[in-house]
Amino acid sequence: MADSSFDRLVLTLKKSEREDLLERIFQNSDLSKEPLYTKTAESPKKADDEFSKLPFFLRIWYVIVGFIFGKPPVKAYENSLIAKVGREINLVSPGYYNYAQGLLLPDMHEKLVGLKNAVRFFYDALDFSVNKDRGAFYAFMASYEMPEIHQQLFKMSNPEEFSKSHTDMTPEMLKQMALEMYAENLTTMTDFQRESMYQNVRSLICLKELAGFLYDRLIINFQNEAALHGNVCPAALAKGQLAGLNNILFSLKEVPSLPLLSTLFIFSQREAFEQKNEKINYELQKLLAQTEKSLAVIRDFNKSVPLTLILRCINKDMSYEPSELPGGEDWFIIFRNYWKEKIEESYDKYLTDLKREEINRIFALFFDGMEMIDIENTLSAARDETLSLDNTLLFSFFLTFYKKIFLTEMNQVLRPILIDGEFLKKENRLDFTESYNELIKMEDAINNLVRKVAPGGDYGNRYKQLRTDVVSPVVRHRKMQVLTEEVNAESYEIAWKAKSAIELMNSIIHGILYPVEGSKYASLANISTILGKANSDFMVALNETSKKLVLAVELVNNIMDVEGKE
């Protein structure tokens, strides 16, 4: 599997480059460390507890008030506390909420719009980073928080480097050792590093929630009221959404750390970083300036808008307080799984590349330097308009084998056997004829499939139609899946028939040359006279054919193993 651009940042950015980037961010950073959220409301009160502490005569008073309004004395007392809070809001923070009328006022509308616009910046950065690949994002963030551990994990995920210090090990053994060492390496993580990562992820979750909050659903409830000089909203209509927003703001207490912001910036600007763009410093300054502005708006909102007090009034509940958002505890599992998958993928790819090198070596021997027929090149000219096709390397081998080996060399030996061979076992002739016929049909079957897949072919036209049909993404995906499965089924049927034909022919020829009593395949009755005076040359060619068939079987199995893992 090819690495994504996220993976390339994690796996290829050198330690010195990461340190340089972090240093640039520190130099350009003038972020205020002032907390984003400071407590502005008194601790919640339970009306029952507070009521029991009142002087006797006040409790009698609330009994009377409760009786008049048909409420329990405790509730009557709580309502008086809420009314007091409502009056304090009007005095200390006017313009946001009118308790008597139960309205959110124009200043609240203005603050919500400002908050929405400010945090949009984070939404874009998050969408280009953690929303795409959480594992890679956490891994890159960890490269700042725990560089030594990152360096070790990176080393273990690089089989070419890892193998240099373990030259006596097979790729499979290297992979097992890397997985064991990776797990052991994670145990060296300190409590401080774990806590730093956790806090970063917590900040990230809160930023995501704040940036992704459905502001428009809240703001749309505000309607212009000329008498109140702006947009107002019935408070009861917005209490659920305000409570959700309050929980997010309450959870995002501290300014996100520079390692977290660094990761966000680098991921969102990854193309510039990958290309060593000269405008990096300028981009960093812009990002940091916008961050400071956005954080300042969040901080000002929390200071200006007594949201917790307003919600106590709206809910008529003095015990109301915001709650912490859940999440973040799974960061280590995601981080660990990222590296485990990355190590497994890199070693599987390493092993596949080694097998492909071996295949190329055997190709050179098998075809004696002859050029391979490349199906990939046939299809790549219209790659964007063409269905992907499995088994392309295998089909390239089959076509080259057929045209440059089977027709020119092997057929000189196999055709006389087909026509004049006297098989000692009748079923051997049937198997030989079946195998020979399948090998003859192999080229047409492969070329026919390639024509069908290419633009203008049956599969190609259906693919083009599906790409332009005006249907829902779900329907298009399902139809594409059906088409792909149909193409793959035909591809694997052709591959399996060709593979089986070569294996069968190999077994038959081996039985002719090296008969074993009781074996399924026996020799020919006329093996020593089938071509008369030319028989000695025939036997030499038959032995050569046997060797080529053995090598062909080995190559086909190796190619199928490699293509099955790509």
Approximately how much helix is present in the residues? over 70%
What summary fits the major beta sheet? 4 strands, antiparallel
C-alpha Rg (nearest Å): 37 Å
The amount of beta strand, in percent, is under 5%
Summarize model confidence as the mean pLDDT.
86
Domain module count: 3
Q: SSE order, as H and E?
A: HHHHHEEHHHHHHHEEHHHHHHHHHHHH
**What structural category do the secondary elements indicate?**
mainly alpha
Count of helix runs: 24
Shape: elongated
Adjacency order of strands in the biggest sheet: 1-2-4-3
Low-confidence stretches: none
**Secondary structure: number of strands:** 4
Taking the alpha carbons of the first and last residues, their distance comes to 6 Å
Explain this structure.
The protein is mainly α. It has 3 domains: 279 residues, no CATH class; 65 residues, no CATH class; 195 residues. Helices cover 71% and strands 2% of the residues. The protein contains 24 helices and 4 strands. It has a 4-stranded antiparallel β-sheet with strand order 1-2-4-3. A hairpin with a 4-residue loop joins strand 1 and strand 2. Helix 20 packs antiparallel against helix 21.
State the main characteristics:
4-stranded antiparallel beta sheet, 71% helix, elongated, mainly alpha, 3 domains
Q: Outline of this structure?
A:
With 566 residues, the protein is mainly α. The chain has 24 helices and four strands. Helix 6 (106-127) packs across helix 11 (191-211) and helix 20 runs antiparallel to helix 21 (426-453).
